[in-house]
Amino acid sequence: MAPASATEASYRKDEKVFCFHHELLYEAKVIDVKPSEGDDKKTGFQYKIHYKGWKNTWDDWVPEDRLRKLSPENREMANQLRHEMLQAQRAARAQPQPVKKKAQGSTRGSEERQTSVSAAPRGQKRMRDHDLEKEEVFQNKRAVRIYMPDRLKSLLVDDWENITKNLQLVQLPSSKPAAVILDEYFAFATSTGNRNSTETDILEEVIQGLKEYFNKSLGRLLLYRFEREQFYDISTQLEQPTNDLAGKSMSEIYGGEHLLRLFVSMPELIAQTNMDIQAVNRLREELSGMTTWLSKEPQVNAFFSSVYESPGQAYIDKVKSST
Fold first, then answer.
1. What φ, ψ does residue 63 adopt, rounded to 5°?
2. What pLDDT does residue 323 have?
3. Per-residue pLDDT averaged across 13-42, rounded?
4. Residue-wise over 21-43: b if at least 16 C-beta within 10 A, else e?
């Protein structure tokens, strides 16, 4: 990234970015920009950022070297950093850990934050400690691992290649939409007789919650760029009273491939809820049960036999013109 000039900031107000917080990259938004002062003048500008999904109390002024453009390459880097952190956490849990008397500072611009914590008055220090505890809970939720069998991982890779490399789209509406898949899992899970009424009620809430998550996050999180024009077309059809899709939800139109993408995104979504650890663990168990069931041959054949088709050159040109 080229350094900022003396008169022009590299990032503008309201721009969406990635920002380093400790060792990880998080999605954020620039909410203010100001020239650096004092010894920091050589860095050009300071940026006030708001982390996506975090409370305003985490808003912070950061130097330019903490920011990255919101690009596919940087998103891949963010995912890789998160993957490496989880691997390190698992390795750390595998061996006894010494008791640490002092919190370690981050290697990315956190030295001054550590200094302010140690020097803060007692009341402020308690608040800082409380914030650190909240961040630890947040990170633990982000680290929730939902079991994804290799068969489903392979389907996700094929889905990615069909759309981003082959420039194809899934035919919609799906013959087996996400809502139907979830309902069939509920019927399967409750037919074994191993659940009491309370556990059945919990599963029903989970199923309804997943449908709601799917409907609300599809357009924001679950689509590749190449699919957006198709999504806009579907949304237009939903608004037409005489259309066959009128009155349907997105979970009744999109199918298994997009449901798998939701499962992949669930750790991020869970991290933004007020669920306690017990509820998070229960949800993780239910989701892992679903993915295990989905990976079996009958379900793979029934739910992931979607036909991909070329949308035509006019659609491709329209996508290119909108980027």
1. -75, 165
2. 65
3. 82
4. bbebbbbbbbeebeebeeeeeee
